[in-house]
Design goal:
Shape: elongated
Number of domains: 1
Helix content: over 70%
Structural class: mainly alpha
CATH class: Mainly Alpha
Distance between the termini: 40 Å
Number of strands: 0
CATH architecture: Orthogonal Bundle
Order of helices and strands: HHHHHHHHH
Length: 177
């Protein structure tokens, strides 16, 4: 996972991957299949952590608390530890050649799934009167998804937790209601 987060799908060579796992190429192929299969397994594992964070945020009582918890969790996940920073789903295949197109498409689907979860939660908030009638949950979800993706890029570029928390604070000021 570290190698894919650091180098992206296409940037991660088989040599990088086998070295990180401490195995040779035949062992990698026997255990995981090809590089694409390995990436998909890594993506599934990574997604479990992201999904758990989403579920915790979705349990918040208000839209504002949901957004604050979601974005604060993004800050923590993207800046923890000594390893690569940023989000595998955002950065894993931003730039891909023809061979990496299936992975790029899968990551687009994952990002759309995240946006849909956010939209549904904000739609519920609007129905409950927690967001004003003028609020557009789809537009807000797209905006929050863009903020999360931007935070990933900032984290990858070395932004500190403090700097990313300022993004969260500014985003909360932009919420309607």
């Amino acid at each position: 996972m570290r190698v894919f987060r650091e180098k992206g799908y296409e940037g991660a060579s088989l040599s990088d991957l086998t070295k990180a796992m401490g195995i040779n190429r035949p062992s990698m192929y026997a255990a995981f299949g090809d590089k694409e299969s390995l990436f998909r397994k890594v993506l599934d594992r990574y997604s479990c952590g992201i999904n758990a964070a989403f579920q915790r945020a979705l349990s918040e009582k208000t839209a504002r608390a949901f957004v604050e918890r979601l974005l604060s969790t993004v800050v923590e996940l993207q800046t923890k530890g000594e390893g690569p920073r940023g989000c595998l789903i955002t950065q894993g295949a931003l730039v891909c050649g023809e061979q990496g197109e299936p992975i790029r498409q899968e990551l687009i689907v994952k990002r759309h799934e995240q946006e849909e979860l956010i939209r549904r939660r904000l739609q519920r908030a609007k129905k409950e009167g927690d967001l004003p009638e003028s609020a557009n949950p789809a537009d807000l979800a797209r905006y929050l998804t863009a903020v999360m993706q931007g935070m990933s890029i900032l984290a990858n570029g070395g932004a500190s937790r403090t700097e990313l928390r300022k993004v969260v604070e500014t985003t909360l000021l932009a919420l309607p209601g």
